Predict the structure.
Amino acid sequence: MGIKQSIIKRKLEKELEIKGGVVFIDELSCDGCGECVSICPHKAIIMRALSNEEVKKLPFKGRLKVLVKGNRKANINQELCTACGKCMRVCHEFSIHKQAK
Ligand code: SF4
Ligand code: SF4
């Protein structure tokens, strides 16, 4: 594992240690693979297609990702999410984070 990967992994483990908290998705780095949707035991994650207007407002890196991976992004319904962290472990882009409330 490279240095960058191990730093990200350590950050993830730290976030997972937070009791309760709020789980959220970084739309910029999400590539819409849908892995998190399948793993969520509470069906709290849905996929949403960004509109053309929303895509236009993204920074260059975000627009490039949409061009390569498509415009689907994962979104968490906070009403259903229990902050269990299962989705955080499966996201290969490390796009899902947890912070204290
Ligand atoms: S697993 Fe990660 S990259 Fe894939 S849809 Fe969910 S948040 Fe996006
Ligand atoms: S933290 Fe748990 S309940 Fe919340 S979206 Fe992720 S898998 Fe679902």
Remarks:
- The chain has a mean pLDDT of 96.
- Residues 25, 30-36, 74, 90-91, 93, 95-96 surround iron/sulfur cluster (ligand 1) (CB under 6 Å).
